[in-house]
Amino acid sequence: MGDIEIIGHRGYAARAPENTLMSLEAALTAGARAVEFDVHVASCGTPVIIHDDVLDRTTDGSGPVSGQTVEQLRTLDAGSWFDPEFAGERIPTLADALDRVVGRALHIYPEVKEICEPSDVDRIVRIVRDSTMSDRTTFISIDWSILERIRAVDAAVRIGFIVVTADLFDQALSLALADRVAVLDLSHEIALDDPSMVRRATDEGVDVLTW
């Protein structure tokens, strides 16, 4: 078995409100060498770190993330829902998150969520590249067309195909093999139900993530 990488999922979501700077900090402080976080885009085009496409679950706001500017999003409380201790924690931008982890995380895994325009994807890739983290980044997405766009923008950055159902595994593995530097990101249910999928991928030289 190869090396196992411990990745902080949404930062350290059991210790701090997910996808906040405090959560990223908690993951790194706890010893995670890599962090995963989710990227949406505000109405003004600024990439921000939040999991859901609506604000209701993890902030005191409501409605779609894409319906508000980054200035509006910055006014929301993204911490109190988790614990009053984190009152006033804000939705970070992608640039904020990168500033927090650069020089500390050995690898980052931005999960690019539903993006309306190719220019949004281009902007996300450019921000990561400008942070000097590009060679330590794996962009992951459940929307494989987003990964196709990322590959068109950057021929070298690593991408990861999120696989949520077993019937998509063969297609994802074929795409990863064709890409040469791509990885697979399997749900833990798939990995546990059929470990042979993990063995098939690793035998072919494709790294496997799971969550």
Structural summary, described in words:
The protein is of the alpha/beta class and 211 residues long. The chain folds into 2 domains: 150 residues, TIM Barrel; 49 residues, no CATH class. It is 34% helix and 18% strand. The strands form 2 sheets. Strands 1, 2, 3 and 4 form a 4-stranded mixed sheet that branches. The longest helix has 13 residues. The radius of gyration is 17 Å and the shape is globular. The two termini are 18 Å apart. The model has no long low-confidence stretch (mean pLDDT 97).
Q: Terminal Cα separation, in Å? A: 18 Å
Measured on Cα atoms, how large is the radius of gyration?
17 Å
Please give the CATH class of the largest domain. Alpha Beta
Q: Helix/strand/pairing class, anyone?
A: alpha/beta
**Number of domain modules:** 2
Number of strands: 8
Give the CATH H-level superfamily of the largest domain: Phosphatidylinositol (PI) phosphodiesterase
Give the H and E element order: EHEEHHEHEHEHEHHE
Low-confidence stretches: none
CATH topology of the largest domain: TIM Barrel
Beta-strand percent range:
15-25%
Mean pLDDT: 97
Helix content: 25-40%
What's the main sheet like?
4 strands, mixed
The total count of helices amounts to 8
Shape type: globular
What labels would you give this structure?
4-stranded mixed β-sheet; globular; 34% helix; 8 strands; 211 residues
Topology:
Blueprint: E1 7-9, H1 21-30, E2 34-41, E3 47-49, H2 70-73, H3 94-101, E4 107-112, H4 118-130, E5 138-141, H5 144-153, E6 158-163, H6 169-179, E7 183-186, H7 188-193, H8 195-203, E8 208-210
Parallel strand pairs: 1-2, 2-4, 5-6, 6-7, 7-8
Antiparallel strand pairs: 2-3
Helix pairs in contact: 1-3, 4-5
